[in-house]
Amino acid sequence: MKATGIVRRIDDLGRVVIPKEIRRTLRLREGTPLEIFTDREGEIILKKYSPMAELGIFAGQYGEALAQGSGRMVCITDRDQVLAVAGGLKKDLVQKAISKELEQLMGKRDIIIASRADKEFVSITEEGPEEIALQTIAPILCEGDVIGSVILLGKDEKDKMGETEKRLAATAAGFLGRQMEG
Fold it and tell me: Is the pTM of this model over 0.90?
């Protein structure tokens, strides 16, 4: 744990203000759910809550099946990081923070198919990877809120993605969203 040197007081309603710099760095927005932990030494730990993290193992297995069936690389994300990767690039993507562009794209709630040359093409994480040439991205919705995405990836621009990949990503996103509701 890293000390920030910032001290805040609890108000009469039990609230504590998290400084703007920390909210910006950790991508905490109004309405972001936080999980509260305590320990025996009296520490209180706030952690961003990800409902998708509960499905981590299941999402990984589902991603593996989707990758085998489609012949594509598959990423499953929550609103903050890549949770599962199948079909390659695991070490480059898993548990990395998603890019701001992907986060904004998910917020639009559209399913997109793009090649590297298209303006809709976004980086999955801030660092790349560079070898991705094609992508199909479908947001995962749970009770009307975007909670993540299913992404099909390709390395060869000649191997275009189309309606089949769009339907696969949409079906997977819909299925994972319903798993969270149940």
Answer: no
